[in-house]
């Protein structure tokens, strides 16, 4: 088999393949054997009808067409592998000779992954929140703890925001109480805003014994609802004192200083991981913006389908249908698909940019790195590296694995050179973020 590749119109190439008649004859013979299993002739067992008998009865045209149908995809796959054609869509195949006899020739026009050029990738600037725990962070966390360990104290004054009012509330329409909007002895935090806005407005300044009436829209269907509220008790929130007793009650340490130190450490750990993820995401965003042209629709659609299948599989493992998931999360299917498309297009841009970086900087993947990647996959799936390699080779996925490692290496190359600053423009130690980084380094996932 011989093959050539030449540019075609648009972002496509034309792969021309020629298969000698003698080579193709083996495919025709295989086609006759397949046909023998389907044909029933008197005096012959199924699958044992000789080729000459089939030729006499059926002719060679049917077998040759069957051979073309079965063999052309393999010939095409070998040709693009030999020429390292990075096809991103199914080919359009035109058989130019050999349908009746002789050498078989065909042309396959296929869209390929574009090679983009990006500039400025070695001097990107990414803005993220700093990884350090500030006094404000610790103070905010302590206030949350004080809220958790607060108590309620009955007061003889009008209700104010932050107080807890015990109320009887009736939401009705046409004098009929509505489920979910009617309750007795309901304890409501004034200002919480989790029923209707008018409830908070009416309770602010109300006293025990007051009867409040107002109308509002139903939080579910938006239709008018009449409310009647009886204020039965007003309680103030009493926060615990900031002392060692509070620290020992709210945590496993004994003093307030120890509590602040413990919270500082915990917050810093979380913010460090958040900063690491933000650095990768921000770098991916910046790289994607360097790609000026719109990515090919075939790549975007392929990425969309991959993401959709991954989500469907995760939901299926939990016994959840995708449609049920969208309804439960209040997502419109069309809007969901549009968001998915946006994310897919973004991921494709990042991938194209990283491939461009790898090409420009001569980043390649040697056999040792490929072996390490296969060993890592094998460990994750609980198989031997040899078995995983055999599966990759059988499915023709070795080039894909090598490409994935190459783009990850390109991302690391860029990350080691990016300038990292906080929202005020202050420098952030990039090397500290990259050191022992256990964050996901898959550029498509990060994007």
The number of helical runs is: 15
Please mark out the parts with pLDDT under 50 across 5 or more consecutive residues, or reply none.
438-447
Approximate strand percentage = 15-25%
Q: Class of the largest domain, according to the CATH hierarchy?
A: Mainly Alpha
Q: Give the helix proportion (percent range).
A: 40-55%
Report mean pLDDT, rounded to a whole number: 91
* Integer count of domains: 3
Could you give the distance between the termini? 42 Å
Based on helices, strands and strand pairing, what is the structural class? Answer: alpha+beta
The run of helices and strands is: EEHHHEEEHEEEHEEHHHHHHHHEHH
Q: Please name the CATH architecture of the largest domain.
A: Orthogonal Bundle
User: How many DSSP E strands?
Assistant: 11
Q: Which radius of gyration do the C-alpha atoms yield?
A: 34 Å
Largest sheet: 5 strands, antiparallel
- The CATH homologous superfamily of the largest domain: Trigger factor, C-terminal domain
What overall form do the CA principal axes indicate? elongated
The CATH topology name of the largest domain reads Trigger factor, domain 2
GO molecular function: peptidyl-prolyl cis-trans isomerase activity; protein folding chaperone; ribosome binding
GO cellular component, one term: cytoplasm
Protein name: Trigger factor
EC number: 5.2.1.8
């Amino acid at each position: 088999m011989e093959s050539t590749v030449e540019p075609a119109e648009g972002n496509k190439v034309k792969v021309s393949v020629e298969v000698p008649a003698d080579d193709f004859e083996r495919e025709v013979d295989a086609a006759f054997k397949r046909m023998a299993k389907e044909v029933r002739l008197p005096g012959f067992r199924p699958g044992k009808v000789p080729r000459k008998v089939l030729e006499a009865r059926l002719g060679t045209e049917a077998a040759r067409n069957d051979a073309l149908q079965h063999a052309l995809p393999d010939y095409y796959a070998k040709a693009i592998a030999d020429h390292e054609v990075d096809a991103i869509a199914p080919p359009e195949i035109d058989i130019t000779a050999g349908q009746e006899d002789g050498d078989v020739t065909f042309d396959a026009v296929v869209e390929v992954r574009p090679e983009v050029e990006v500039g400025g990738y070695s001097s990107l600037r990414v803005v993220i929140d700093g990884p350090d725990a500030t006094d404000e962070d610790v103070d905010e966390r302590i206030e949350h703890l004080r809220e958790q360990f607060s108590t309620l104290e009955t007061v003889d004054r009008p209700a104010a925001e932050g107080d807890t009012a015990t109320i009887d509330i009736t939401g009705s329409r046409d004098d009929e109480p509505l489920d979910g909007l009617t309750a007795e002895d309901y304890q409501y935090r004034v200002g919480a805003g989790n029923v209707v806005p008018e409830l908070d407005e009416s309770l602010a300044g109300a006293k025990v014994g007051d009867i409040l009436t107002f109308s509002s829209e139903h939080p579910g269907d938006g239709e008018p609802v009449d409310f009647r509220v009886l204020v039965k008790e007003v309680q103030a929130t009493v926060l615990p004192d900031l002392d060692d007793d509070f620290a020992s009650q709210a945590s496993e340490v004994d003093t307030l200083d120890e509590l602040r130190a413990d919270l500082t450490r915990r917050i810093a750990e979380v913010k460090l991981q958040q900063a690491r993820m933000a650095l990768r995401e921000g770098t991916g965003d910046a790289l994607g913006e360097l790609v000026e042209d719109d990515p090919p629709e075939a790549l975007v659609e392929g990425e969309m389908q991959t993401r959709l299948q991954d989500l469907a599989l995760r939901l299926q493992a939990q016994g959840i249908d995708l449609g049920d998931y969208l309804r439960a999360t209040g997502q419109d299917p069309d809007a969901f698909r549009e968001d998915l498309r946006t994310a897919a297009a973004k991921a494709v841009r990042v991938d194209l940019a990283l491939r461009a970086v790898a090409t420009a900087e001569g980043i390649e993947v040697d056999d040792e790195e490929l072996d390490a990647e296969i060993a890592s996959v094998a460990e994750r799936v609980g198989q031997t590296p040899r078995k995983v390699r055999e599966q990759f080779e059988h499915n023709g996925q070795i080039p894909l694995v090598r490409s994935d490692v190459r783009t990850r290496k390109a991302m690391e190359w860029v990350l080691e050179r990016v300038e990292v600053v906080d929202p005020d423009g202050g420098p952030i130690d990039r090397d500290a973020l990259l050191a022992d980084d256990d964050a996901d380094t898959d550029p498509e996932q990060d994007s």
